[in-house]
Amino acid sequence: MIVRAYEPKDFAQISHWAKTHWDTDYSEDQFPKTGFIVDDVAAFFMYTTDSTVCFLENMVSNREACPVTRDRAIELLILKAFDHARAHGFKVAYAVTDNPKVIVRASIHNCTFKPKQTLITKNLTTHQ
């Protein structure tokens, strides 16, 4: 199983996977340039910053992939993201989720949890 860097040509399959999970149409400009993919199985993305903190987000998988293959691919993607973050000088990786499977997986990797925090968003395309 090969984990490789995300390329813009991969967006069509990632968009399709996301649609099957969340029934949401995403545009390519909503995803960071830094990401990793196991072809036909899963992908994971990293928002980089100009600090020592990065954000891991948009883990998405192909629901039609074999569950064992999908599980292994996700594990490899997580390890790749951690390695990439370390290699680029990041000291902390943040992630936000309400998915119990992601929470279990994060606990396996000794992540810490702040369950009482609130995700705050602001649509910046309006002036309201």
Question: How does this model look, in words?
Answer:
The protein is an alpha+beta fold and 128 residues long. 33% of the residues lie in helices and 20% in strands. It contains 3 helices and 5 strands; from the N terminus they run βαβββαβα. The protein has a 5-stranded mixed sheet with strand order 1-2-3-4-5. The longest helix has 21 residues, at 67-87. It starts with a strand and ends in a 20-residue tail after the last helix. The mean pLDDT is 91.
User: What is the terminal separation in angstroms?
Assistant: 47 Å
Average pLDDT: 91
Order of helices and strands: EHEEEHEH
Instruction: Tell me the number of strands.
Output: 5
Q: Provide the structure class.
A: alpha+beta
Give the helix level as a range of percent.
25-40%
Radius of gyration: 15 Å
Roughly what fraction of the amino acids lie in strands? Answer: 15-25%
Task: Give me the side-by-side strand order of the main sheet.
Answer: 1-2-3-4-5
Identify low-pLDDT runs.
none
Number of helices: 3
Shape: globular
Strand count, sense and barrel status of the largest sheet are:
5 strands, mixed
TL;DR?
With 128 residues, this protein is an alpha+beta fold. The protein has three helices and five strands.
